[in-house]
Amino acid sequence: MNDNMDNKNNGNKLSKVLGRTDIIAIGFGTMVGWSWIMMTTSWVNEAGILGAVIAFLIGGAIILAIGLVYGELTAALPLAGGEFAFIYRAMGRNSAWLVGWIMTLAYMGVAAWEGIALATAIDYILPIPKFGPLMEIAGYQVYLSWALVGVAGALIITLLNLIGVKSALLFQVMATAALIIIAIVIFLGGVTFGDIDNMGRPFESGRGFFYVLLMVPAMLIGFDIIPQSAEEMNIGPKNIGKMIVVCIIISLLWYLIMIIGVGLAAPAEIRFSGIIPMADVAAYLFSSQAFSTIIVFGGILGILTTWNGFFIGATRLIYAMGRAWVIPPVFGSVHRKYKTPWAATLLVGLVCVIAPFLGQNALIWFINTSSLSALISYCFVIMAFLILRKKDAGLDRPFRIKGGMVFGRITFAVSIMYLIAYIFSEVIAGGNAPEFIIIAAWVVVGAALAAAAKFKDGHISAE
Q1: How far apart are CA 311 and CA 320, in angstroms?
Q2: What's the CA gap between 344 and 226, in Å, rounded?
Q3: What is the dihedral sign for C-alpha 24, 27, 30, 31?
Q4: Which end of the chain is more exposed for a tag (fewer CB within 10 A), N or C?
């Protein structure tokens, strides 16, 4: 790479503005979204409170092991793009392109769905008039009024991320603090005003246990957003690795608090009822409909923090791939004034604007696709960890895992089993398995972009 290219890239860097509080807000706020408000009651109902807790502890331990791998790699290679950078170093450009592009789909799938989730939550508090029927997709009638709510949210998130990451993170920190307060209120309310008889049987069934266990990765996906923003962090590399672990532990504790609080708060018949079960549980627990509104408001904050977090992750990953010329290099451009990846931001924003017009049922496919894509990427990252431990032993590792190779092999084996179990129970058992079709189509789109980029090894240096 010549001097001109070096000078160009030096003016094309992201700003180092993120501190510890910002990082926790990114990680925790991304992992805790809207799903808890819809799913927590079903976890207790299906697995029992003890079964749900054990399932989350086991699933959380697996995710924590993967997080440790991410921690070592991020501290060693603190570059935007996370998985893309790790695999580029370990396996080369083609493998990095494939995994990076699949992980982009994981982030975009979640970000795309949030517009519909936002409309659902707002409709609970303030009913949205259903006018302007557009089309029916997968049995769901799409209305212009609902779609416009999602479009408005997408435009706001896009603008926040376009004018600077600090603007997006200020909102992220405030909303994350509110989410933590709501969890504490539910837990303390359940302990104080609830009844142990509300729990029912502590362990309902093995089927319910595995149902919850296989949902844990989808609930904890988001810690991997932290490596995407590594270049923007104003802390040492070792501390970046630690922050990944901290965010996973905080999120796991948050889910456990919610499960215990809900189990104590209301009997099964309340947990089974309503469009938004957590809202009904809160209203029953505190004998006030106002608390159901508070819970839904918390759900809206969760939607926005998750949306914002995955938006950041997707844009930084696309930016890294554009910078490496594996997709058109315009996506590796940084805005001169705001120091944000403007082309990547506009691309992700466009997807989020279009998504609400696809309807609620169709977007469920994207959620499942996101979980599947993330699990596939996790397996590749652990492979990269093992390869780098062997062929790049001299790489500086400020955050180093003890028992590296043994730990990596065990984590890889467990992750592969987790992936297989998820595919058979959640994807194939679901019927048509559109997730595979979506991933294949996405890879074709990525291949077209890669061809358009006309990348060659001479475009960038090995460094």
Answers
A1: 14
A2: 17
A3: negative
A4: C
Distance CA 130, CA 421 (A): 40
What CA–CA distance (Å, rounded) separates 92 from 99? 11
Spell out the SS3 assignment of 267-293.
Answer: CHHHHCCCCCHHHHHHHHHHCCHHHHH
Beta strands in 128-186 (DSSP E): 133-137, 140-143
Distance of CA 366 to the CA centre of its chain: 13
CB 315 within 8 A of CB 80: no
Do residues 95 and 380 touch, judged by C-beta distance below 8 A?
A: yes
Note the pLDDT of residue 459.
52
382 touches 412 (CB < 8 A): yes
Contact 84, 92 (CB under 8 A): no
- The 3-class SS string of 429-457 reads HHCCCHHHHHHHHHHHHHHHHHHHHCCCH
Apex 148 CA angle, 147 and 151, nearest 5: 90
- Contact between 42 and 280 under an 8 Å Cβ cutoff? The reply is no
Contact present, 310 and 225 (Cβ < 8 Å):
yes
Query: Which secondary-structure segment (H or E) carries 376?
Result: helix 360-391
Contacts of 330 (CB under 8 A, 6+ apart): 322, 343
What are the average pLDDT values for consecutive 10-residue runs of the chain, which has 463 residues?
42 74 86 80 89 94 94 93 93 92 88 81 82 78 86 91 75 82 86 85 87 84 88 88 92 91 87 78 87 85 86 92 91 86 93 84 72 90 96 92 92 92 70 75 91 63 60
Residue ranges of the alpha helices (H) in 324-359?
Answer: 342-354
Looking up tokens 């509080």 gives 21
The answer to whether 439 touches 373, Cβ cutoff 8 Å, is yes
The residue whose two tokens read 């796991």 is 252
Q: What is the pTM of this model?
A: 0.87
pLDDT of residue 6: 42
Would you say the C-alpha torsion 63, 30, 422, 75 has a positive or negative sign?
negative
Task: Measure CA 387 to chain center.
Answer: 26
CB 157 within 8 A of CB 311: yes
- Token pair, residue 224, equals 């991997």
| Amino acid at position 133, single letter | P
pLDDT score of 118: 85
Residue type at 302 in one-letter notation: G
| CA separation for the pair 435, 368 (Å, rounded) | 7
Rounded Cα distance, 316 and 313, in Å = 5
The C-alpha atoms of residue 340 and residue 180 are separated, in whole angstroms, by 29
Alpha carbon 78 to its chain's center: 19
Beta strands in 20-177 (DSSP E): 133-137, 140-143
Q: Are 381 and 140 in contact (CB under 8 A)?
A: no
